[in-house]
From TrEMBL:
The chain crosses the membrane at residues 12-38. Keywords: Membrane, Transmembrane, Transmembrane helix. One of its GO terms (biological process) is autophagy of mitochondrion. This is DUF1772-domain-containing protein. Belongs to the ATG33 family. It is found in: Membrane. It is a multi-pass membrane protein. One of its GO terms (cellular component) is mitochondrial outer membrane. Its main location: membrane. InterPro entries: ATG33. It comes from the Eukaryota.
């Protein structure tokens, strides 16, 4: 298999993983805390629901691109040059989505989607405390995602550096 295709897969995977890490980090540290400064709970709730739906789609795209390209680079590499960091990084990236959601739901004993649906159902009657809890929950979730994706990104950068690609 031509090494050019493998190098392109590694490059695209690394860039996508960096973007995924950046999205989760900026959400956890900048965007979500600023929602708590909005003047009304209705505004904060509608902004949170918009932000969470758009973030879910973008993160899903980036996660799938990263997982596909890095796993493809692993599979397309000659057996002598198959480095396990590609496999580990693609697994960490995949886990950063549904794995984190499952772990947090298991830890809290609740279903995050149910809470999101409750916020949607309360269109006209927004409680500031419930919105604050939803923002804090999403902030914690995105922080965990940023940590998992950051570990995967560091592993990928060190792996590519050691790989010489």
């Amino acid at each position: 298999m031509p090494s050019g295709i493998i190098s392109v897969c590694k490059f695209v995977g690394t860039i996508s993983l960096g973007l995924l890490t950046g999205v989760s980090t900026s959400l956890a540290t900048l965007t979500l805390p600023s929602l708590l400064t909005l003047p009304t709970a209705v505004t904060a709730r509608s902004t949170l629901s918009y932000l969470s739906s758009k973030t879910r789609v973008l993160s899903s795209y980036l996660r799938h691109i990263t997982t596909f390209t890095l796993f493809s680079a692993y599979l397309l590499s000659p057996r002598r040059y198959r480095h396990p960091y590609l496999l580990y990084t693609s697994i960490f990236t995949f886990i950063s989505g549904p794995g984190v959601d499952y772990a947090i739901a298991y830890r809290e004993g609740t279903n995050e989607r149910r809470i999101g649906l409750e916020l949607e159902a309360q269109r006209d009657d927004a409680n500031g405390e419930q919105v604050r809890q939803a923002v804090e929950r999403m902030r914690f979730t995105e922080g965990v995602r940023a940590t998992v994706a950051g570990v995967a990104f560091a592993m990928e950068v060190v792996g590519i550096w050691g790989d010489g690609a």
